[in-house]
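Give me the fold.
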Amino acid sequence: MLMADNTGIRIIYDGDCPVCTQYVQYMRLKESVGTVSLLNAREHPEVVEQLSVAGFNLDEGFVGEYAGKTYYGPECLHLLALLSTNSGCFNKINAFIFRNPTATRLLYPVLKLGRNTLLRILGRRKING
């Protein structure tokens, strides 16, 4: 499941969610993370299955694999904020909010509700539903 060489980060997200897609595309990660691999979960059901077996539900949170560890939901969001640069307005706001683990844990359910509402409005199914 983890990247074989552990020299980069792999982010597994919901490609049918416009907010999720824009978030991972606008995130500027520091050069020190190495390769950034963005994986649309909808195009890789085998990865979704592997993550599901490992206890990760991609309808409840996205996943980041970095430095031999798997980060899920708010922990993944917090990790990305820590690894991102401070360049650009988006990254500055993202870092200001989500580098605080408590704020991230408190805000993540609101973000998840927004994602689920947006998918419903757009007529898109959840990944596992």
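The chain has one domain: 8-122.
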